[in-house]
């Protein structure tokens, strides 16, 4: 309003720039919402994989799967980083477009104020100030609305998932036993069974049984008559 009051001749230009800004926001919001949702979706596997590796680090060493764990960690990190870079790039591109619109508006307001001989100084200063902050406010408004729409989409997906019918109970008569054939299975730290017999008298002896693994050797003793 301050811009239109100080320079009424800028009404068509202000309307055109407002229409252009609305078109940019309408084209940016759906893409940015999906990108923000993708960032949140791809961030979960990174944390889950890290926790699984920390909890099962001894099993990774035992079965020699450190290479696969590192490869999968790099893959999920790269996917999450790409989504975050895309999200930041979209935000920066939208902010650059709004800054160009704000610069054009500021240029037009400044030229009209200079050309007018009876321009009001107070309203002219307000119009220049609002022309500088208008694009920043529009950027924050669109970004917050985009985040809200992304969160609403996540809530809608959760509601749709919770409304799915649960799986039926296992029917009677189905096979509960079977055979699993594993190929290419190897253990880095082999298991070894150790045993021994200690005679400490003519009639008594102690049998020792031990299991050697990656955690060390565990011994068990049994008194024999």
Structural key phrases:
225 residues, mainly alpha, ABC transporter transmembrane region fold, 2 domains, three-stranded antiparallel beta sheet, 3 strands
List strands and helices in order, with pairings.
Elements: H1 2-6, H2 11-55, H3 57-62, H4 66-115, H5 121-162, E1 192-199, E2 205-213, E3 216-224
Antiparallel strand pairs: 1-2, 2-3
Helix pairs in contact: 2-4, 2-5, 4-5
Task: Walk me through what this model shows.
- The protein is built from 5 helices and 3 strands, in the order H-H-H-H-H-E-E-E.
- The chain has 225 residues and is mostly helical.
- The protein folds into 2 domains: 2-162, ABC transporter transmembrane region fold, CATH 1.20.1560; 192-224, no CATH class.
- It has a 3-stranded antiparallel sheet with strand order 1-2-3, with no helix packed on it.
- A hairpin with a 2-residue loop joins strand 2 and strand 3 (216-224).
- The protein is elongated, with a radius of gyration of 35 Å.
- The termini are far apart.
- The mean pLDDT is 73.
């Amino acid at each position: 309003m301050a811009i239109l009051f100080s320079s009424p001749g800028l009404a068509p230009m202000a309307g055109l720039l407002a229409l252009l800004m609305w078109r940019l926001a309408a084209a940016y919001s759906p893409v940015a919402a999906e990108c923000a949702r993708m960032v949140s979706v791809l961030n979960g596997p990174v944390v889950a994989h890290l926790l699984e590796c920390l909890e099962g680090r001894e099993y990774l060493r035992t079965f020699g799967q450190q290479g696969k764990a590192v490869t999968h960690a790099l893959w999920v990190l790269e996917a999450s980083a790409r989504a975050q870079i895309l999200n930041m790039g979209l935000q920066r591109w939208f902010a650059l477009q709004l800054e160009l619109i704000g610069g054009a508006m500021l240029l037009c307001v400044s030229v009209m104020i200079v050309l007018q001989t009876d321009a009001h100084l107070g309203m002219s200063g307000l119009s220049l100030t609002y022309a500088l902050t208008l694009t920043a406010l529009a950027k924050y408004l669109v970004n917050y609305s985009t985040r809200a729409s992304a969160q609403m989409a996540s809530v809608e997906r959760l509601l749709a998932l919770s409304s799915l019918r649960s799986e039926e109970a296992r029917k009677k008569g189905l096979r509960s036993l079977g055979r699993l054939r594993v190929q290419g299975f190897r253990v880095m730290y082999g298991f070894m069974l150790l045993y021994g017999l200690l005679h400490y008298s003519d009639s008594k002896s102690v049998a020792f049984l031990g299991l050697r693994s990656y955690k060390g050797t565990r011994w068990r003793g049994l008194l024999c008559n």
